[in-house]
Amino acid sequence: MTNLKVIGKQHLGKFEFTGIEGGFGEGKRAMTVKDIAEIHGKEVKHVNELINRNIKRFHNYIDILDLKVVVQNDHNFIRLTDFGLSNMQISKSPNIYLLSERGYSKLLKILEDDTAWEIYDHLVDNYFSMREQLETSNLSPELQMVNGLFKALANQELATKQLATKVDDMKEILSVNSNEWREKVNSILKRIANNIGGAEPYRSVVNMSYERFESRAHCDLNRRLENRKTKMAAKGLSKTSIQKLNKLDCISEDKRLIEIYLSVVKEMAIQFGINAKELEELKVV
Asked: For residue range 108-148, what is the model confidence (pLDDT) as tens digits?
């Protein structure tokens, strides 16, 4: 798991909250449910209840972390009070949730708050998309100009290199062929899960890949799987054979579905920082 880091109090308009980096990837920003509840004018208890009722929608170490669990296992001796929580809040709360930008967007879908998306836009633009930066306001005008020019050039060069790298990596990942795609897909998903860490990261990553696939392919894998099991039972196949069926078997029946699923996994590989060198180590390319 990427180490959590409290970066201090943040201000966005009239709102004040605790800035946090890590947990969901290096430099990735996050927010506690306590701060989110205050910004949206909700009770923390109410927001926690909404999350717990929809917990299957939130993937551990991708959308959500329970700080009560994570901090106990953290080796940097970070304390729950570092996140702006009082000892009373810590003792009374069965869960102390931390959400990534992705997790926060999922929460908005169940908050039923008319102003939620407007607030979310402000947070994405002015908090989640930012990284901790050096204070440069005290520099001389000349140095500020040079600093601004340097940043602009550096960002342009980094953007160019990142685009080139992503294109090269995509070409390498695209070498997954129809004969070996299942093994290679599993290798990629395991590497993503390894990068994320957590209790059941592989299951979360696999479920995410299926959710994205179903959305893109307009396909219900559970229904396909049940239909196929029913057909196999009607043909008199053994219960053992039927129980071994899985969702990948359903995808493998249709070349179009294979192509869609591969594109989903390739995009996830790039999103979670799996590069061509790592894929070579996995014998994926």
From this structure: 778 766 566 666 666 766 677 655 444 555 666 666 666 66
Structure tokens belonging to residue 241: 């054979």
pLDDT beneath 70, residues of the chain: 1-2, 12-13, 71-78, 112-122, 124-126, 129-179, 197-199, 275-285
Q: Which helix (H) or strand (E) holds 64?
A: strand 64-66
The answer for residues whose C-beta is within 8 angstroms of residue 268's C-beta and 6 or more apart is 188, 189, 192, 205, 208, 209, 212
Report how many helices (DSSP H) and strands (DSSP E) the chain contains, helices first: 14, 5
Q: pLDDT tens digits for 81-99?
A: 777 777 787 878 888 888 8
Q: State how far the alpha carbon of 239 is from the alpha carbons of 223, 224, 228, 247, 249, in Å.
A: 18, 18, 13, 17, 16
The CB-side HSE value for 126 (13 A sphere, CA atoms) comes to: 13
- One-letter amino acid at 218 equals H
The DSSP letter of residue 4 is: P
Distance CA 108, CA 238 (A): 46
What distance in Å separates the CA atoms of residue 192 and residue 183, rounded to the nearest whole number?
14
Q: Identify whether the C-beta of residue 187 lies closer than 8 Å to the C-beta of residue 284.
A: yes
Which is it for the CA torsion 152, 154, 157, 163, positive or negative?
negative
Residue 50 tokens, joined:
């909404």
CB 10 within 8 Å of CB 82: no
Determine the pLDDT at residue 21. Answer: 84
Scanning the structure block, which residue is given the tokens 């040079």?
146
111 and 42 Cβ atoms separated by less than 8 Å: yes
DSSP assignment of 104-149 = HHHHHHHH--TTHHHHHHHHIIIIIT-------TTS-HHHHHHHHH
